[in-house]
Amino acid sequence: MAADYNSSTAAAKSRDGTVNAVLAGTGSLPAQVKWAVKQCKVTSDAEKLCSPLSIQEANSKKPDISLNLRTVADDLVSDLRLSARDAEQLTLKTRRKDQLNWNPIELIAEEMYEDQANPGKFLDLETLTIWLAGRAQQQYVRIDPLKIDAVLVTRVMSHEFAQRHQILALETKDDEVVVVSAQPYVHAWEATIEQSQPGKVLTRVIANPADIRRYTTEFYTMARSVNKATAAGLSSSSLTNLEQMLELGQIDQMEANDAHIVNIVDWLLNYAFTQRASDIHLEPRREKGRVRFRIDGVLHLVYELPSPVMTAVISRLKTLGRMDVAEKRRPQDGRLKTKTVEAHEVELRLSTLPTAHGEKMVMRIFDPDILLKSFEQLGLANDDYARWESMVGNPNGIVLVTGPTGSGKTTTLYTSLKHLATEDVNVCTIEDPIEMVEPSFNQMQVQHNINLNFADGVRALLRQDPDIIMVGEIRDLETAEMAIQAALTGHLVISTLHTNDAPSAITRLLELGVAPYLIKATVLGIMAQRLVRTLCNNCKHHGDPDPDGWKAVTSPWKMKMPLHMYHPVGCLDCRDTGYMGRQGIYELLPMTDTIKELLDDEAEIGKLRLAGMKEGMKTLRLSGALKVVNGETTIAEVLRVAPFSGTQ
Asked: What would the mean pLDDT of 27-32 be, rounded to a whole number?
């Protein structure tokens, strides 16, 4: 492909000479070469040239021709993708001021015309870009910013050059440089790139013009800010007295005298929100620090910052989170509320950790809108939802949610409390730390520096006339005893434990020293959960079942294997991963009389699990198997997150 689109110097001079001769009136344009416009005015003493030219004809001769709205519309009509009536209406429309520099396919995409070749679908920007790539016989790519080394690609050309020619370098190797453009018939910039990258083959690809503009601005703004911050030698001492509410999306309005670190933090947070990240990791290293995002449970490397810049970025975030900037020897916690470009508020929980190369920071992102989702949207439905509603609907007792960090326990607790927190109910929480601030609750945070722990918090909450108490985590016997006392005195207590599955929560309480008779008297039920990535609805493929995988998921239990299973494929929407979003899989163990009979000082997990299965409990893997049957996830994903559900 590179050989087809790399113009030699001789060919370029020959082409330019022919065109200049025609324009000067001393030569003639070959009959087979015509301009790609419907109406044109190339006048000389000898002739006046004006004729339509298809995209293939223009591409075969490689003249420098920008896409024309009329020609693109005509080619869509000839390819039976656009109706002649729509094409005629399109050319009569008046452009807005902000559309003057738009690519013609953007103008067409904005109208959302029906795709004549695919009834029920529309000519959106990605569809038109793919069509243009096929017409021009160039490779189509979807720009994935997580796979691009912004530091390297911004060195290929200047920001001004990239903006002027509407191009962007996507990848640079020892022997190749890949450049993306949405103007496949403009070649004037190729010679400059080839000269600046000696020994490298230039490969042209086509991408969405809106993405090219967006990422050109973001990549170069970020790179410039990092370079200037490095040159300025910013330190934490220069980052004080900054605002507590951060307004994002102001890159285009940045003034020259604004702190470059502010610009970097702005980009970092806004970028995380657009990529659906749940966590941001800032990890210092000896020479360069790493920025990683966790998206759908998987970490992705996003950017590498010089160590001084990474230190300054963390210092600014500590200031915004009202943490002690000078203290770098001990872990700290903070919180920050930001407002996105769309005026959408998002909360972040900040945590620092001293490491060998400096402070590491992790920011957990909480979207308040998650509390507005139904349990069915979270993955809890049918019988499991009915059991959960029955548990939390009791006026008194203890309901436990178990699972490792990042398994969705907080979302489950907050969503449940949100539904329970009516006007006639007093809901109080004791958390470490407060994950999300919710006006419906009375929230208190553990403060170890003044010896306010979970047990002391519950003791204080009992004097606040509560109806429902949420305890962030039962970590020790004292907290467990206070939770039991609250349940025995007529309160509903909801809390969490860190165990692998639901039956293990009972043995965990016994290990803490809780008497079996107290567990029987207070615990209403236990729910273990995990988060699995859900298949992308736009690209999942209906294929053959996997008998070995099905056996691994359902063993040692018996469950009928479906005739077909869905498999991940990968598309533009899911960034070629095959997955989009996550849902919960659940294991609910109701505390029935049968379970209570097995409770003693030496209760066995295997017997508890078997008894729970007889009472209607589905293990985590069996819950995941049902989602496989429904085409929501895959066997590999269930095996990745769910522990073995045998009886040993």
From this structure: 39
